[in-house]
C-alpha cells in the first residue's frame, strides 16, 4: 500500500504525516545495536519539530541531543514538570540513578499527568526507553499501573506513547499488542522472534528471513495493514542550533 498524503516527518526512507501518529501507541523494538534508540530519537526529533511535546524517560542518558529540557535530579514538585508539557516544552527525565526516590517521582508525575490531561487534552507523547523495566510483563507496580492506563486509554486525552525495548517479550503484552505502529529492528532471541511472529501478518519463515537479513538501522514498519522494510536516517547528536536543551536540576 502506498501513502499519498502530504508528509511532515522525515524518518529516512519513511515519511509520515503528523496526524498519522499523534495519540497513537508506537512500539520500537530490537536488540542493542540494531538502531532502535536511533529510531526513537529521530522520531522524537520530528515530533518536536512539529510542536508536539514529549516527556522522555531516559535510563541511559541517550536523549541529551534533543531540543528539550533535561532533568536529572528529582527534588521538585512533579506538577511543575507537567506544566512544562502543557505549555509545549519537551522534557527528558534522565533516570540514570534508579532508586526508590526516582520511581516515587515517576509514579507521582504520571498520575498528575493523567489527571491534568483530563482537563487540557493537549497532544503530547510519553517515550519510555527500556520500556520492559517500567511496564514489565507479569509484574504490577504503582508506576506500571499508571503507565499501562496511559498507554491503553490515553488516546482520548491526547496522549500517545512510544515504547522502546531490546526485550520485546518482557514488555507488558496488553500494551504491546494494542500498539498501532511498529518499528521492528533485528532480534535474535527466539522468544523475541516469536513476539514478531505474533505481530506481523507473515509466515514464520518469511519473518525469520527478514530478521536475519537486517542491518543496523533497518526496520520492518507495520501500520494499518501496511508492511514494508525501511531504513531510518541517522540522528544528529550535535544539531547546529539547539534553542533549548539546557540542563535543569529538579
From TrEMBL:
Q: What is this protein called?
A: ATPase-like protein
**Superkingdom field:** Archaea
Species this chain originates from: Metallosphaera sedula (strain ATCC 51363 / DSM 5348 / JCM 9185 / NBRC 15509 / TH2)
Question: Sorted alphabetically, which Pfam families does this protein's record hold?
Answer: DUF87
The reaction(s) this protein catalyses: ATP + H2O = ADP + phosphate + H(+); Couples ATP hydrolysis with the unwinding of duplex DNA by translocating in the 3'-5' direction
> What are the recorded GO MF terms, alphabetically?
3'-5' DNA helicase activity; 5'-3' DNA helicase activity
> Can you tell me which family this protein belongs to?
Belongs to the HerA family.
Q: What is the lineage of its organism?
A: Archaea, Thermoproteota, Thermoprotei, Sulfolobales, Sulfolobaceae
Domain Helicase HerA central spans what residues? 14-97
